[in-house]
Amino acid sequence: MAGKKIHSAKTKRFINNTIVHVILAVLAVIWVFPIVWVVLTSFRGEKGSYVSTFFPQSFTLDNYAKLFNDTTILNFPQMFGNTLFIAICSCILATFYVLAVSYCLSRLRFKMRKPYMNMAMILGLFPGFMSMIAVYFILKAIGLTEGNLIKLALILVYSGGAALGFQIAKGFFDTVPFAVDEAALLDGCTRWQIFTKITLPLSKPIVIYTVLTAFMSPWLDFIFAKVICRANSDQYTIAIGLWRMLEKEYIDNWYTSFAAGAVLISIPIAALFLYMQRYYVDGLSGAVKG
To answer: 165-180: string of b/e by CB count within 10 Å (b at 16+)?
Structure first.
């Protein structure tokens, strides 16, 4: 009797595992399909957006070469450089803001602490692009919507409100024992020394997570970049450039190059996430450190 129950349990477990793996396989195909399509299209020899076959009839590297050689209409290298500069600067500032605010809210006790956290939680319920018109006119009033100052404007936009997203980092800092801070204070350390030399080294996972998320926002953003850059093509970011490739006057000649550009900008992000995946997961889970 016991043997039959064990055999039945194993059979039931096998069936359940099979069903789960089949569902996961189907989902994996659905998720991977658009990526495969973009990669194949980036090597397609036939130009234009309308073709009768899914798989390319001929393959070429000209679509990638065109991104760097044909800069008369859409200057991809310049857009890539603009985006990289804005993303790096915004990432540095936003990471500092988020970690500093998170540490203060986790470790310090002051009068407006809870009201600030409640306000930040409420503001976080609204999408950021709701404020883009007001933000644009503020930047225009102080002269940051023309020329190279557009880069500064975008950096301020991407990093300015970053501190409102303190919740995950604060939760991670809460797992660091308060006894560590108290011992450091007794040894004569300042709060800044505790933050930079003790708390941050103990919080490497959340630091990496914050860096990744702070870099992703300006790298992928389209709405704010489009509103602030407007017709200043020399200040365009990658997102705007890829969007321009799909406009009516460019789509026939630039469609396959659009796919090539999408592949190129995704490679650094994918490689970074794959390399940092272990730290990324630890940062989300709020692992307790010793």
So the answer is: bbebbbebbeebeeee
Backbone φ, ψ for residue 179 (5° rounding): -60, -30
What is this structure's pTM? 0.81
The count of other CB atoms within 10 Å of the CB of residue 74 is: 22
CA distances, 139 to each of 97, 135, 225, 279 (Å)? 21, 6, 13, 37
DSSP classification of residue 48:
S
Alpha-carbon span 126 to 177, nearest angstrom: 33
Number of C-alpha atoms within 13 angstroms, CB side, residue 167? Answer: 9
Two structure tokens written together for 6: 């064990």
**159-197 confidence digits (pLDDT tens):** 887 888 888 888 888 888 888 888 888 888 888 888 888
- Assigned token pair, 108: 């310090």
pLDDT, one tens digit per residue, over 209-241 is 888 888 888 888 888 888 888 878 888 899 898
- Long-range contacts formed by 132-135: CB under 8 A, 24+ apart: 132/223, 132/224, 132/227, 133/227, 135/224
